[in-house]
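Morning!

This is the sequence you dropped in the shared folder:
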Amino acid sequence: VQLVESGGGLVQPGGFLRLSCAASGFTFTTYHMGWFRQAPGKEREFVAAISWRGDNTRYADSVKGRFTISRDYAKNTVYLQVNSLKPEDTAVYSCAARYYSGAYVASTAAEYDYWGQGTQVTVSS
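The structure's back. Tokens below.
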């Protein structure tokens, strides 16, 4: 199983990025996918998740209206469009996969089965 994130970088406040997570080694269509982030000295926190069918999404309150999660079944890839970035969005962003169990989209890290290594997002002027 592999989850490989990309798309991070240094961006000014108000800027945007599109993070990608390429999945392999498991049946992508039967897994919910999530994004989490961890800033230095802080615990990992939930950012967004999307159901296995792509018809249900969930966001942390801190990113609602600014971030959008989506998935491409042809490319086995999940995306996180991050707009209107703030310095407090600075963190390592990791994607995760959770074997589907109905429509419930999990928001706690312990509920996810596989993890990527993460991509650094730094928001600074």
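Headline: The mean pLDDT is 96.

More detail when I'm at my desk.
O.
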